[in-house]
Design brief:
The complex is a heterodimer of chains A (513) and B (145).
Chain A: E1 37-39, E2 42-44, H1 46-61, E3 82-86, H2 91-105, E4 133-139, H3 151-157, E5 165-170, H4 177-184, E6 192-195, E7 208-210, H5 217-226, H6 231-252, E8 255-260, H7 264-276, E9 289-291, E10 305-308, H8 316-325, H9 342-357, H10 360-370, E11 378-381, E12 388-390, H11 393-400, H12 408-415, H13 426-431, H14 441-448, E13 466-468, H15 478-481, H16 498-504
Chain B: E1 3-11, E2 23-29, E3 31-33, H1 68-75, E4 77-79, H2 82-93, E5 102-103, E6 106-107, E7 111-115, E8 118-119, E9 135-140
Parallel strand pairs in B: 1-9
Antiparallel strand pairs in B: 1-2, 3-4, 5-6, 7-8, 7-9
Classes of the chains: A alpha/beta (513), B alpha+beta (145).
Chain lengths: 513, 145
């Protein structure tokens, strides 16, 4: 409750709590039955609530099914490939799985007296919209301390949904050469790493190197997560790895759609935390995105993949009530411990509390973010997360960075923070471009931000001078990386050493004496 | 002293906090302390109501026959409601992490409460007076997408 005065001194200063529903207790839809649930101040009975959720689900999904919109207002639904459903075991995933299965894969359609499909040929149950459906689960126990494996539990949860294929993945597959070779058909086993400073964290320049170490995928994953500077960075990295593992898997299996079970509440959380972590330029992709074929290097198989969130208009409360009343089993999702949730965890706490007292604000967050348009144009894709790469990032960072320090001791300490012993040959280092010019702002922040709090993430299992990177991080072709100006001029950027920089401005330097 | 039997169910992972048991049948007195004080449990049966101890406010000998308003005010009691039930669950049945179930005098944000298959917001939330045979469900929505 909010107050405008001192409730201790004045009893009337405390504002009365607002009623939870606007009108009477009868259902606003049928106006006959007594209501069973309150959704954003509107009362619905149980009989009207379930169809309402189904309508919201179909309204969010079906406009994106057909490859081309066409001219018909109600086109026949036919996707160009199969469907992959991202399943985390959480509430939204479980509800989405149930809705997708019952709407599109639940068996032969009932027929009317004439033997024709009941509901018409356009009804979801009568049309094979997708050729098949696969449920993709990413096991994250390797990244979470004291977590146990849940792959078999998820497999058993799908037992009540026959005709669906189960694709189990592991978070460490991102560092597994055999998995990447299977996805791309490319036998290239090389892996890139990031050089680390003496503090065990990536250096500011984000220098790439070819790795000469042979870590197992699990150890590489742990080394990668341990080298990240903050709990927020760890949360984001896990999220990016899961997202890309699912995308590559969907493309490999010839899927035209990848559906995720983000509810309106979790969507609002991801939007706010995305902006808080510097990902505002990619905010539209939080709603929906489409990956064209050939976007990922080496993955030639498959067409475009549309990532859709069909529950984006359904709140978490609606999902819970729907799951309970329809007997949907929710296996549950392993909760990242507080120590590694960071900004996403804090944002979730805030939004969930906000939704309890002010349920309409969650949809306001989503509607407002849907109106946002990123400034500037994209100049490519981020090498790590494959989101849009903003132009002019390096210039902007240079303008806001402090490049000199009056205290010489600090300068010397910073200059000596480069790794003393590197497992990389200097010639190999010089051939690879630095990563910072090929990362989006949120990824740069993820690798380079520093927290005043000591990270209490799991202690590193292996001490290394470099940080392994996922297999999909590869230098793009030189021609694709060269920016072209409007008049057709080619701009080539190369890193200058300190000696070269000094020589280029030698005429303007004052003598040291 | 009359007792009320209520069926309590947990879903969405909340059952893990209550000994991994989804359904509980609980018997409570029809009149309970207004400040939601829970008397210490006896070793024999933790799901049955406990007699008030000497330092607790005395329970009415024949509650239904008294003037309900005057009697309740004098003894600072109230009819059994959902708020008391939540305090009872936290004190007697919760095995770990009480902060995941309750926040102050109400459920933690993200927990959906259904009273006889109806949203508790339609029934007055914590002030709903429980009747014999009621079915109360606590569902956690915090598993995410």
């Amino acid at each position: 409750m909010a107050s405008c005065g001192n409730p201790i001194a004045d009893d009337s200063a405390l504002m009365l709590s607002r009623p939870r529903f606007d009108k009477g207790k009868h259902c606003v839809k049928c106006k006959l039955n007594l209501g069973n649930i309150v959704i954003r101040h509107a009362v619905y009975c149980r009989d009207c609530f379930t169809p309402l959720v189904i309508v919201k689900f179909r309204r969010a999904l079906e406009p994106h099914v057909n490859a081309n919109a066409g001219t018909s207002k109600r086109p026949k639904l036919k996707a160009s490939g199969s469907l992959v459903l991202g399943f985390s075991g959480g509430l939204g995933s479980a509800v989405l799985l149930d809705l997708v299965y019952k709407s599109y894969f639940a068996g032969r359609p009932p027929t009317d007296e004439n033997g024709d499909p009941r509901g018409g040929i356009n009804h979801p149950r009568n049309v094979s919209v997708w050729t098949s459906c696969a449920v993709c689960y990413v096991e994250v126990s390797s990244a979470i301390p004291e977590a146990h494996e849940r792959t078999e539990e998820m497999r058993s949860a799908l037992a009540s949904y026959p005709n669906l294929k189960f694709i189990p993945l592991r978070l460490e597959d991102a560092f597994d050469e055999s998995w990447w070779c299977r996805m791309t058909g490319n036998p290239d086993m090389s892996q890139l790493t990031l050089e680390l400073g003496k503090d065990g964290l990536p250096t500011e320049g984000l220098n790439l190197a070819h790795s000469s170490n042979t870590l197992s995928p699990k150890d590489a994953l742990r080394a990668f997560l341990t080298a990240l500077p903050t709990p927020t960075a760890v949360s984001r990295a896990i999220q990016v790895l899961i997202r890309l593992l699912m995308f590559f898997t969907a493309q490999f299996h010839g899927a035209s759609h990848l559906v995720l079970g983000s509810s309106l509440t979790t969507l609002a959380v991801s939007l706010v935390s995305c902006v808080a972590q510097g990902g505002g330029h990619a905010i539209r992709e939080e709603f929906q995105e489409e990956w064209p074929p050939g976007l990922s290097p080496g993955v030639e198989r498959g067409g475009s993949v549309r990532v859709v969130r069909p529950l984006r208009d359904v709140t978490m409360k609606e999902c819970a009530a729907f799951a309970w009343w329809n007997g949907i089993r929710v296996p549950g999702r392993p909760r990242l411990t507080r120590v590694i949730t960071g900004i996403p965890g804090l944002t979730k706490d805030f939004v969930v509390r906000l939704e309890k007292d002010y349920p309409s604000t969650v949809s306001t967050i989503a509607r407002t973010c849907a109106k946002l348009e990123p400034k500037g144009t994209s100049v490519g894709e981020c090498w790590f997360c494959y989101s849009h790469l903003q132009g002019g990032l390096a210039d902007w960072k240079a303008r806001i960075s402090i490049r000199s320090h009056p205290n010489l001791k600090v300068v010397e300490r910073l200059a000596s923070s480069s790794p003393a012993d590197s497992s990389v040959h200097p010639d190999q280092t010089s051939r690879l471009p630095p990563l910072d010019t090929h990362l989006c702002y949120s990824c740069i922040t993820m690798f380079t931000s520093r927290s005043s709090r000591k990270s209490s993430f799991a202690p590193p299992l292996i001490h290394h001078q470099d940080m392994p990177l996922p297999r999909w991080v590869k230098p793009q072709d030189a021609e694709e990386a060269i920016p072209v100006s409007k008049n057709g001029e080619l701009w080539v950027r190369s890193r200058q050493s300190e000696k070269e920089c000094r020589e280029s401005i030698a005429d303007f330097l004052l003598p040291d004496n | 002293m009359s007792t009320i039997t209520v069926k309590v169910e947990f879903g969405g992972g909340l059952e893990l906090l209550f000994g991994n048991k989804r359904v509980h049948s609980i018997s409570l007195p029809s009149f309970v302390p207004a400040d939601n004080t829970i008397a210490p449990s006896s070793p024999q049966n933790s799901e049955t109501p406990q007699l008030a101890k000497s330092d607790d406010p005395p329970l009415p000998a024949n509650g239904p026959n008294q003037d309900p308003v005057k009697g309740l005010e004098e003894t600072k009691e109230k009819r059994l409601d959902v708020q008391y039930l939540m305090h009872y669950l936290r004190s007697r049945l919760l095995t770990e992490r009480p902060e995941l179930f309750m926040d102050g005098d109400t459920v933690r944000p993200g927990v959906l409460v259904l009273i006889n298959d109806t949203d508790w917001e339609l029934e007055g939330e914590g002030t709903y007076e429980i009747s014999d045979g009621d079915d109360i469900v606590f569902i956690s929505t915090l598993h995410g997408g």
